Structures are given as C-alpha cells and as structure tokens.
C-alpha cells in the first residue's frame, strides 16, 4: 500500500520505534496546517504489511508521527462490536467529580461545607497524587511561581498524573475540553506549547544542532527565541527519540546529543528548570541513554519514556527497565497499543485497546515511580487507537481514556455534607435479613449467610459515561461522590482484606447491568449487588432518598460478622474517605 506524505515544514513530524519489530515504511498523505507561511516537504516511506524486509534494514519500526491532524476513525469504529460513547456532552462523572484536588468548586450548590472538613491525611483514593518521594515541596531550586509548581521535588503537575500527547492545535478541539478537567498537562512537541483551559503546556526541544532532520533548525530557532526572552520554563524535555532515524525521530549520535544537551538544555537547570531526558524509540532495547548520561555534565531530573505495547505486561516491563536502569522518576510522555513484535502493527481490536488503556492508567496511577503519563495521539497508530476523530471529538478510545482517568478523582470540599438523621441507628447489632441479591459475578448473594467478617458499602447511584446529571443532584447532601467511594474501596481492598475481612461488596438500587459497566470501567476488584427490587431496603428499613421517581439508598457502610451488623458508618462524608475510615476501624477494633 502506498500513499504520498505531504507535511508542512512546521508540522514537527516525529515518531517512536517499536521494540523487536522489523523496519517498515509507508506513504501516508497528511496535511498539517500549523504556520502562516506554508513550506512543503515531501517525505516518501514504504511499507508492505506482513512481509519481511531485507536483513540490512533496521529492526525498529518508525512509529506514529506525533504531530498530526485527528484521524477519521468512522469506518473501523463502526465495524467494532464495542458500542461507541463519543457524545459531545460532558460525561456525567464530569458533573460529579471535581477538576481539582480538594480546591476548586464546580458545584452549583450554595450550601457550605462544615469547617471541620479538611483534605484527608490518610486518604486511600489518592492514586492520582504524585508519590511522596517526588512530591514534597520542602526544597526547590525553582526561581518562579506558577499554578502547577513543577519542581525537582514536586514533579506531578497540579497533583494530577494524567495528561495528553497531542498535536499542534489539539487544545482547540472539543475533545481537549472534555479531557481538560481531568488532565494537568499536554504536549504538542514544540518548545512553546501554550497553557490552555487550566492545562499546562509541556515544552520540548525536538532536536539539536547534531540532528540533520529537515525541520530541526526551525524547531531550534523557536527554542532559541524562547530562551532569548528570558522565559524560564518550569520543565523542558529534549530530545525526541535521537536513537532513531529522521524524519520521524531526531537522529543524533550520543556525542552530538550530549554536546547539544550541555549547550542548549543544561543551562536552564541553573534557573530552576526541571530537565526531562531524551525519549527513546527502542523502548527497553535502547542503548543510548547510558553513554549519553556518562557524557553530559548535568543529568536529567525525570526520564521521558515512550511505550508501544499490546498489553499491561509489556507496559510494566518498559517502566521497570527505565526505573531499574536509571533510578529516576518516570514521565510516560507517550503510550499506545501496538503489537510491536515481530513487526510493528497497531492494535485494531477496540476491546484490546480499551483494556490496555484501563490497565495502563490504573498501573501508572498506582506506580510510585511514574509521576505523569499521557497517551499518544499521532499518526501511524491505525484507526482504533487515536483519541480524537477528524472533527476533533473523542473517539471510543478517547472516551475510554476519559472514563479511566475520571475514576481517580477525589471529591472536592465544596459539596454539601449530609446530617445524621438517625436513619441507620436501628441497624447496629441487628441481624441481616435473608435476601437474595443478584451480583455482578452472575450469582445470587445472601448477606445473612456469609461467614466471617464482610464489609458492605451502600450508595445512591453512579452515573454512566455520557450521562449528564442535573445540577440539582450536586446540591443534595450526601448524593455526590458514588464513584469515588467505590474507587476508594478498590484502592484499599488489599489492605482491608489483609485484616481478616472475607469479602467486600457494594450495594445500590441500580440494575446489575448498570453496575457491571461501572465495575469494568473502574476495575473494581470486588462485586456489586443490585437491590433493584428494594427487597433489602424494605427488610432492613434502610434510609432512602427519592430522585426522579427512583428510590435510592443513602450512603453508608456496614461491617457484617456472621450475618450480624457489628458496626455502621452513617452518614458517610466525604465519600472517598469511606474506605479509609473502615480500614482504620478494622485496624483498631
């Protein structure tokens, strides 16, 4: 298959190399309008899918051009068996979850939060926070103040790891607006990436004087202009995959890269700029950074990592390699679903892509060495992976990423707190009635017959992707925060079970199908029980609330020992601290 590739000179086309893949080329036709003065550069590449290439060819495949226009995914998505959820409206969880960590209000509620409520000191739902080893701000050499405050000791922007590797102009698209409340950074692969919609632009110098790629000098000129204005960026990455060839990588020798690093990048460190390493296209097969590190006078602070793997095992292997080899915090500046061995082949199955996104996000969030991560959204990744379509809207993959990162957000401090109305007082030391509840496991569960100690948390309802929740919901005391509550039990599940608890269950009056979607989307390790017929509500006389003609259970948690309630948490506030409170009781009872 052949196409001609026409790129504007300032489009800054680049790519990654896949591990253990045959070198392949192909023609594509892309027009990227990023400048007023249009300078055309024609690049010819070839690929024959599934064929071996001559032995003299490089074993690494040039991966996607990171600067691109959004691709049209209509045909392949339509063929997928996975339903699309690319509504242009904000996700329901966007209304439920705040876009900042215990700070900025998005609620329309006029009720004040009790002054006694503060950000939890032992919250179990803080996976999105930078690890303590890198987040302490007690010492810093930064000479400037900004909203994000990236320093050598606080590398995660705004305390949110999630970001986006996009393309020039991506911040003007609808998809970016959907993601913006839940990401802290984005890159368009230039030295002057602008901040947009509360998201910090992360700059990079794509290549130095040692790079012979056609657009290197234009990129370098933009970088030098930035430095000439005495602008001190908080962070600067350089260079883009110097271990692979032009035009999609910056192609530099270790000596050239080291010389350019010391003359161009390293001086910024004296001004307090955090330095990000060159990224590698060869993933854990790279042999570039070790000699580069030995040759430079000023080391990098955070390692930029590109990951193109088909599953979580591959993702973990790359992260572990860079941590074990360089012992520096890791910024996953690109990740994508790619079958990278024996040859480069972007994932074409939506289910596989969704799994990779959900698994990788959960892994990055929980890994103490990963301080930031973002999916690649460039050319060359097929029609299923790209997060945005040709209209700049979220694709199914984009919605999957949005859902995945939403689930890690804590509840803000400005939601109205519920009051103890005495509705659960009768449950203490009561026997659980025998009621069969359908489980997301496909079985029927009777809480009264469960042996040992079990934890059961109950919640009103969770919102589905694409569902818009009215502002009135946010103003109801105790209504908002069901997904964060469920995720808090997810994050604390191992610790809770280690205390001798047999099982954890979540209960709501929503249908099992509704609950199954939540469980799969947020990767809950426990099962949810449906009381859609209100049998448990009536048998235990549970405190309830009415919403749009539906009966919902007020938020609470129960410790059930051999069919008897031995402890009640009611009311529960804030929702995302529920699991932490339960764990504290388990450890001290």
Q: Which terms summarize this structure?
A:
Glutaredoxin; GH; 2 domains; 15 helices; Asl1_glyco_hydro_catalytic; TIM Barrel; Thioredoxin domain-containing protein; five-stranded mixed β-sheet; signal; alpha/beta; oxidoreductase activity
Task: Determine the N-to-C terminus distance.
Answer: 68 Å
Rg, please? Answer: 25 Å
CATH architecture of the largest domain: Alpha-Beta Barrel
What is the count of β-strands? Answer: 20
Largest beta-sheet characterization? 5 strands, mixed
CATH class of the largest domain, named Alpha Beta
Q: Write down the domain tally.
A: 2
Helical percentage:
10-25%
Mean pLDDT: 78
Counted by DSSP, the helix tally is 15
The outline comes out as elongated
Low-confidence runs of at least 5 consecutive residues: 1-147
β content, as a range?
Answer: 5-15%
* Structure class: alpha/beta
Summarize the structure.
The chain is an alpha/beta fold.
Could you explain how this protein is built, in words?
GO terms for molecular function: oxidoreductase activity. Residues 106-155 are annotated as: Disordered. InterPro entries: ASL1, Asl1_glyco_hydro_catalytic, GH, Redoxin, Thioredoxin-like_sf. The structure is a single chain. The chain has 589 residues and is an alpha/beta fold. It folds into 2 domains: 1-74 and 156-404, TIM Barrel (Alpha-Beta Barrel), CATH 3.20.20; 425-588, 3-Layer(aba) Sandwich (Glutaredoxin), CATH 3.40.30.10. Helices cover 24% and strands 15% of the residues. The chain is built from 15 helices and 20 strands. The protein has helices at 74-79, 92-96, 132-135, 174-179, 216-228, 254-265, 289-295, 312-326, 350-366, 396-406, 471-474, 482-497, 512-522, 535-540, 578-588; strands at 5-8, 40-43, 163-165, 185-187, 200-201, 235-237, 274-276, 303-309, 330-339, 345-346, 370-373, 436-438, 444-446, 453-458, 503-508, 527-530, 544-547, 550-553, 556-561, 564-569. The strands form 7 sheets. A 5-stranded mixed β-sheet has the order 16-15-14-19-20. Strands 8, 9, 10 and 11 form a 4-stranded mixed β-sheet that branches. Strands 3-4-5 form a 3-stranded parallel β-sheet, with no helix packed on it. Strand 12 and strand 13 form a beta hairpin. Helix 6 (254-265) crosses helix 7 (289-295) and helix 9 packs parallel to helix 10. It is elongated. It starts with a strand and ends with a helix. Residues 1-147 have low confidence and may be disordered.
């Amino acid at each position: 298959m052949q196409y001609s590739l026409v790129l504007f000179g300032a489009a800054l086309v680049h790519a990654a190399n896949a591990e253990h893949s045959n070198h392949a080329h192909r023609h594509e036709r892309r027009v990227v309008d990023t400048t007023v003065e249009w300078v055309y550069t024609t690049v010819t590449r070839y690929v024959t899918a599934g064929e071996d290439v001559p032995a003299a060819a490089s074993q690494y495949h040039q991966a996607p051009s990171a600067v691109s226009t959004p691709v049209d995914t209509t045909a392949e998505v339509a063929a997928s068996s996975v339903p699309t959820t690319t509504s242009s409206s904000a996700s329901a969880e966007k209304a439920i979850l705040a876009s900042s960590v215990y700070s900025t209000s998005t609620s329309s509620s006029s009720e004040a939060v009790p002054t006694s409520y503060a950000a939890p000191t032992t919250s179990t739902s803080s996976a999105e926070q930078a690890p303590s080893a890198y987040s302490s701000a007690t010492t810093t050499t930064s000479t400037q103040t900004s909203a994000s405050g990236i320093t050598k000791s606080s590398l995660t922007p705004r305390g949110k790891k999630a970001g986006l590797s996009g393309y020039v102009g991506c911040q003007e698209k609808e998809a970016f607006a959907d993601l913006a409340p839940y990401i802290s950074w984005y890159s368009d692969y230039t030295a002057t990436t602008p901040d947009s919609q509360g998201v910090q632009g992360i700059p990079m110098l794509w290549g130095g004087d040692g790079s012979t790629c056609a657009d290197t000098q234009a990129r370098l000129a933009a970088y030098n202009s930035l430095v000439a204005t005495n602008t001190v960026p908080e962070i600067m990455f350089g260079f883009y995959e110097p271990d692979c060839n032009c035009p999609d990588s910056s192609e530099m020798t270790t000596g050239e890269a080291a010389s350019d690093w010391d003359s161009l990048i390293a001086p910024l460190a004296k001004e307090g700029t955090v330095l990000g390493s060159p990224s590698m296209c060869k993933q854990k097969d790279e042999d570039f950074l070790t000699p580069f590190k030995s040759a430079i006078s000023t080391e990098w602070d955070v390692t930029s990592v590109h990951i193109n793997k088909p599953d979580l095992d591959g993702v973990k292997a790359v992260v572990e390699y860079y941590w074990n080899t360089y012992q520096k915090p890791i910024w996953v500046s690109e990740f994508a679903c790619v079958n990278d061995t024996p040859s480069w082949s972007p994932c074409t199955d939506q289910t596989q892509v969704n799994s990779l996104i959900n698994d990788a996000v959960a892994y990055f969030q929980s890994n103490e060495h990963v301080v930031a991560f973002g999916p690649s959204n460039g050319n060359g990744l097929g029609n299923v992976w790209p997060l945005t379509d040709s209209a700049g809207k979220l694709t199914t993959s984009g919605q999957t990423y949005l859902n995945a990162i939403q689930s890690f957000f804590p509840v803000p401090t400005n939601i109205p707190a519920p009051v103890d109305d005495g509705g659960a007082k009768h449950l203490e030391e009561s026997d659980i009635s025998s009621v069969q509840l359908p489980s997301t496991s496909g079985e029927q569960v009777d809480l009264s017959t469960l042996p040992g100690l079990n934890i059961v948390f109950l919640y009103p309802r969770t919102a589905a992707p694409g569902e818009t929740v009215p502002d009135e919901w946010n103003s109801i005391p105790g209504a908002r925060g069901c997904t964060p509550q469920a995720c808090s039990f997810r994050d604390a599940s191992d610790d809770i079970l280690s205390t001798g608890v047999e099982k954890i269950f979540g209960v709501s009056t929503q249908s099992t199908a509704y609950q199954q979607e939540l469980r799969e989307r947020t990767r809950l390790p426990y099962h949810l029980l449906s009381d859609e017929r209100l049998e448990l509500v009536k048998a235990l006389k549970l405190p309830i609330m009415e919403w749009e003609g539906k009966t919902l259970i007020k938020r609470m948690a129960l410790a059930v020992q051999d069919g008897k309630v031995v402890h009640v948490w009611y009311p529960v506030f804030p929702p995302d601290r529920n699991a932490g409170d339960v764990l504290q009781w388990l450890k001290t009872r």
